[in-house]
Amino acid sequence: MSHEAVKAVQAAVSADPENVPLRLALADLLVASGRPAEAVTEAAKVLARDPGNAQALALVTGGVGDGPTASAPTPEAAPAETVSPETASSEAAAPQEPAADTPPDFDWHHAEQQLDAAVPPPFVDPRQAETGHLRPGGPPQAEGVAPLEPGLPRISFADVGGLDDVKQRLNESFIQPMRHAEIAKAFGKSLRGGLLLYGAPGCGKTYMARAVAGELGAGFMSLVMTDVVDSYRGQTEKNIHSVFQEARHNDGPTVLFLDEIDALALKRSGLTGPASWLRGSVNQLLLEMDSMQGNNDGLYVLAATNHPWDLDEAVLRPGRLDRAVLVSPPDATARAAILRTHLAARPVAGIDLAALTQATEGFSGADLEHLTVTAAEKAMTESIAAGSVQPLTMHHLQLALAEVRPSTGEWMQSARNVVRFANDSGRYDDLRRYLSTREASGKSGQRKGWWS
């Protein structure tokens, strides 16, 4: 097969990446050119757009061993000819004819049964699934579910699955006031503020902060301890001031995100001995959030931490981070969206999302990603042993579930102690309600309501 022909079709695919027949034609050309790995890559891209495409499934599941298709013997190679993109597209769209030397009475159905080439659809139809039972998918009786489109760099609340209570609190506290500034001023609402997102690690606090900036159409600045801490006395305070000044001078509203704020705003009573120099950093942060010059309009400070109970009380007073919102582990809707997103980019078959969602109760978003990566590694190992790409199935996810455990358990135990002994002010009432709901539904294995 002419190398120039492959390059010509590749150029056509680049110009029209949504053209499935043209991409399949490119995959056939790559197989004929002795480049099966690249052909499988193109077939996987087809499956991302058309999960039930039989020709792409044949390529991905091992039909690339001896030629462009796995359904018929391939005739002897003819001399290479230059193929134009238009010709390749029309050939791909035309139905595939059996080879000339195939007997007219050849039993194709019997041959297909012998090869056992049936591959389940990428995702099981929920109407055919038995909720709560993990099992491999059956034959492709229903059309596969289309994968989610990849998110854009600027995201919004629509890109965040679940967490409706967090979205509502953020929307009321500052998104709507910033969108309708005149109405907000009439009610004495200033165009500034701060809010603390807290919860178990890996539950999407940083992702939610990016969504807030996307909802506002605002600039997004992120600050972590390594950005500002300096070995010279006084330089850390100058760095904090410089970051806030840059945020104030941005055109339009700006979200300044303080990730892991407990690294910058620990309780000053505990900063003694060698750590006493960090007191100046906490003081500077408090001054910047107050802004004595009154020029914080349009600047919203959004902070995140796993341990809000370690923060200095002055940081949490009204006018600074006066609102705290729990970002809990993803609910069922969010888990289904996260799992679909991570699985859609891989060759999958027979995935029962309903059963998988139920089996991952208590998993954080990071845990769900780790689960899919572990399952993908097992499918990859199996594919390497087989010499061809094998789809990721529920069997691989079952094996991964036996290894991956939710990482939120230790944080939940600490949270129970805080709710029981350190919630006199009611600051963590939303955490108490969340834990109470988990206990009432029997999801945590502890006695119901023992901390209340």
UniProtKB/TrEMBL annotation:
Family: Belongs to the AAA ATPase family.
Residue ranges with Low complexity bias: 68-103
Region of interest (Disordered), residue spans: 59-107, 119-144
Recorded coiled-coil stretches: none
Recorded superkingdom: Bacteria
The name this protein goes by in its record: AAA family ATPase
AAA+ ATPase domain segment(s): 191-331
